[in-house]
Design goal:
This protein is α/β, with parallel strands linked by helices. The chain has 34 helices and 24 strands. The chain has two domains: 371 residues, Glycogen Phosphorylase B (Rossmann fold), CATH 3.40.50; 262 residues, Rossmann fold (3-Layer(aba) Sandwich), CATH 3.40.50. Helix 3 packs across helix 4, helix 7 packs across helix 34 and helix 12 packs antiparallel against helix 13. The structure holds ligand 26V.
């Protein structure tokens, strides 16, 4: 036993030892007597007892990283959508049952207190959740990785549905304290804004700036089945002392406090969108705040063991999760050149060796650009650096392509059309040694269409790394019924090697296994039905087909296509109620960006359709429609295991990858989907016969657009569709209010139907008919469901991270003993 092991030996994990720890932590950590403790206090005490057990591993890992002088990965992300930590930590440590017993012996119901933990919802959707899955996998594979981000006080807003409409309320997730974090008041960096630059003889100085402090908060990220852990370091803004004092000395106390409050706003809230100019400036401040502190921190860590920058690129890999942290590039240049006096050329070489960039969307409106005037005001030195990088790059490009002025305009880091703007994706590509998309199709579109000029210039830079999800949270934790069944058949190794699931193929016709598989799914469906009954008052039957579309509300994801099918089905049932309808519950969940009006109207439409359908006595249990409010990680853990059908119906070429598609298939749902994002790879892995693929593919979408797409013609020619759209338009679902959904109607019929909902409607309806037919045959359905689970090996984020580590970051796992 090493000294470290000995030191923590008293923290063993028998139910008895855990019970003692909880009691101690309740008294000395929470400051409560057992007789006065509320459920929340017990949760806090239990969390501290678990954390104590993680800390032992954490210190050991940190020490080993230092001793082995490893190369470290810095994963920079504005978003980490973590969800709850308690159950996840118990499963990582392998002490779930012991904790359950310990709490029971103290008279505490673990299932109940678990529900009290707020989600850490520091992200919007797919990109943020991917970052959280990656942290889990990096720790599990013992890749020395640090997540870096912002400790927002307010995470993703809470969504309530009031009179059918989305209402956002703030999510103050830190209200009851956060037992998982360690504040590090000794780790603070000054972050500068504004001011101006002056040229000295030996360099540039940035002066007359405002500043704010960034203070670190660390969270332990446990790996599964290993003693390795990693660190998530989040920055929180603190006013600098100088700033406090200057106003105070002038006798203006109120102004001092206001200025402090103002400067601390920078880490106050997660951005759900960036529609207003004032909001945009704060967003830019956030981005710079976070990457400046991060770059200073990683340089300091490097310098603790190195006296020159000679080995920097051997020890540091910096990953940019989308363009949000791209200011890290000019910031590292500034720190190296202006502060550490590294010559420009050498610094640029280092930068190009350490950075890598993942693109997560090709939607034009989501490609980040920043107004040159705003950058000049807020970050004048960085703008100079960007211009200098651009000058060098455009020179190189002219050398490569010859003098082609159109091409130069297209690839320049600065968009000169109208108000000048810096294109963050271009800056990322120029500075990175590797650039990747998140599914085969998406990477192909990046290379061939969106960034083709760059791909011609730097062909070796572009690559694909298909996304993945952590099987620990999305199967082991979310669905205990299914995971224990799998354990019983093939053992428990799949948690760390998801390819093990392929062994389930042997059982897809085994009547015993199939019956148990159906029973496990049914348990999950009953659990969801109970919650819905409790929370919305709607009763749904667990034997109906649970048809689920859960994701952010966005036109390109085409919730409207789903709604149109629901309406068509409703009309068909009313016209012919005696047919042998497969009972269906169509379940939606997802948030709309607060400024995205049409997305909010889509939520309203789903609610209105649900109201009409659910209260129609002719329809009964044949069709129910539900919108589950406040979709997030914890709600997803409840919903996804209960799905029979997974709706992945984006217009081909728009969904970069999708990861919900993987979570649902892993939980035995069959996918109805387009050939988009990772659906294509899921289809290869599970077999096309086990999915319901429909609609235009990406090149057919492009062809149809090029040849002149006419949605109104489809509306006029398809009677079923016309009736549904006319009902929406005339107020059939909105109590005669023909105004409420007029934008939806016109978007689809008159304003170009940008996402080709009408073009795919007929194919979608046919695919839904095939779904019904399969569901009528439980044996066939279950065999397909099992084939889906069995084929999911490659969609573990462990596979994804192994690829990043090997091909992009070039880091090796830590040697643990
Ligand atoms: C943009 C902005 C603009 C400023 C305000 C806040 C904000 C937040 C996020 C974004 C971009 C989101 C991009 C994104 O989430 N992409 C999704 O990434 C997933 C993981 O790679 C992928 O599975 C989804 O297909 C893709 O839509």
């Amino acid at each position: 036993m090493t000294a470290v092991d000995l030191e923590f030996d008293h923290l063993n994990s028998t139910p008895d030892a855990l019970r003692r720890s909880i009691s101690n932590r309740l008294i000395y950590g929470v400051g409560k007597d057992a007789v006065a403790a509320r459920p929340q206090d017990w949760l806090h005490a239990a969390a501290l007892a678990v954390r104590d057990r993680l800390v032992a591993r954490w210190m050991k890992t940190t020490r080993q990283q230092y001793e082995q002088d490893v190369k470290r990965v810095y994963y920079l992300s504005m978003e980490f959508l973590i969800g709850r930590t308690f159950t996840n930590a118990l499963l990582s440590l392998g002490i779930y049952d012991q904790m359950n017993e310990a709490l029971a012996s103290l008279g505490v119901d673990m299932a109940a207190v678990t529900e009290l933990e707020p989600d850490a919802a520091l992200g919007n959707g797919g990109l943020g959740r991917l970052a959280a899955c990656f942290l889990d996998s990096m720790a599990t594979l013992a890749i020395p990785g640090f997540g870096y981000g912002i400790r927002y006080h307010y995470g993703m807003f809470r969504q309530q549905i009031v009179a059918g409409e989305q209402v956002e309320t703030p999510d103050y997730w830190l209200r009851a304290g956060n037992p998982w974090e360690f504040p590090r008041p000794e780790v603070q960096y000054i972050v500068h804004f504004g001011g101006r630059t002056i040229q000295h003889e030996h360099g540039v100085e940035w002066i007359e700036t405002d500043h704010v402090n960034a203070m670190a908060f660390d969270t332990v990220i446990p790996g599964f089945g290993t003693s390795a852990t990693n660190t998530l370091r989040l920055w929180s803004a603190r006013a600098t002392e100088e700033l406090d004092l200057s106003a105070f000395n002038q006798g203006d106390y109120r102004r001092a406090v206001e200025a402090k409050e103002h400067s601390e706003n920078v880490s106050r809230l997660l951005y759900p969108d960036d529609s207003t100019p004032a909001g945009r400036e704060l967003r830019l401040r956030q981005e710079y705040f976070f990457i400046s502190a991060t770059m200073q921190d990683l340089i300091r860590r490097y310098q603790r063991t190195h006296s020159t920058f000679g080995r920097f690129a051997d020890k540091v890999a910096i990953h940019l999760n989308d363009t949000h942290p791209v200011l890290a590039i000019p910031e590292l240049m500034r720190l190296l050149v202006d502060i550490h006096h590294v010559p420009w050329g050498h610094a640029w070489k280092l930068v190009q060796q350490v950075f890598s960039y993942t693109n997560h969307t090709l939607m034009p409106e989501a490609l980040e650009t920043w107004d040159v005037d705003l950058l000049a005001k807020l970050l004048p030195r960085h703008l100079e650096i960007i211009f200098e990088i651009n000058a060098g790059f455009l020179k190189e490009a002219s050398g490569h392509f010859g003098h082609d002025i159109d091409l130069i305009r297209r690839i320049s880091l600065v968009d000169e059309y109208g108000q000048r703007r810096v294109r963050m994706a271009h800056l990322a590509i120029v500075a990175s040694q590797k650039v990747n998309g998140v599914s085969k199709l998406h990477s192909q579109l990046m290379e061939r269409e969106f960034f083709s000029d760059f791909a011609r210039m730097f062909p070796e830079r572009f690559t694909n790394v298909t996304n993945g999800i952590t099987p620990r949270r999305w199967l082991a934790q979310a669905s205990r019924p299914l995971s224990s069944l799998i354990d019983a058949r093939i053992g428990s190794r799949w948690r760390a090697d998801l390819f093990e699931l392929s062994k389930l193929r042997a059982f897809s016709e085994d009547p015993g296994f199939c019956a148990e598989f159906r029973a496990a799914k049914r348990t999950n469906k009953i659990r969801l039905a109970h919650r819905l009954l409790h929370e919305t008052g709607l009763a749904i039957h667990p034997d109906a087909l649970f048809d689920m579309q859960v994701k952010r509300i966005h036109e390109y994801k085409r919730q409207l296509l789903n709604v149109l099918h629901v309406i068509a089905r409703y009309n068909a049932i009313r016209a012919n109620p005696e047919r042998d309808w497969v009972p269906r519950v169509v379940i939606f969940a997802g948030k709309a960006a607060s400024a995205y009006k049409l997305a909010k109207t889509i939520i309203r439409l789903i609610g209105d359709v649900a109201e009409k359908v659910n209260n129609d006595p002719v329809v009964g249990d044949r069709l129910k429609v539900v919108f589950v409010p406040n979709y997030g990680v914890s709600v997803a853990e409840l919903m996804i295991p209960a799905a029979d059908l997974s709706e992945q119906i984006s217009m081909a070429g728009t969904e970069a990858s999708g990861t919900g598609n993987m979570k649902l298939a892993l939980n035995g749902a069959l996918t109805i989907g387009t050939m988009d994002g990772a659906n294509i790879e899921i289809c290869d892995a599970v077999g096309r016969e086990n999915m319901f693929i429909f609609g235009l593919n990406a090149s057919e979408v492009a062809d149809m657009r090029a040849s002149g797409y006419r949605p109104r013609q489809i509306y006029e020619e398809n009677e079923v569709l016309r009736l549904a759209l006319d009902q929406i338009r005339t107020g059939y679902f909105s109590g005669g209010d023909s105004h409420r959904f007029s934008d939806i109607f016109h978007t689809l019929v008159d304003w170009g139907d940008h996402y080709m909902v009408l073009a795919d409607f007929e194919a979608f309806t046919e695919a839904q008919t095939a779904v019904d037919a399969r569901f009528r045959n439980p044996r066939a359905w279950t065999a397909s469901a099992i084939a889906n689970v069995a084929g999911m090996g490659q969609f573990s984020s462990d596979r994804t991270i192994a690829e990043y580590a090997r091909d992009i970051w070039r880091v090796k796992p830590l040697q643990t003993d």
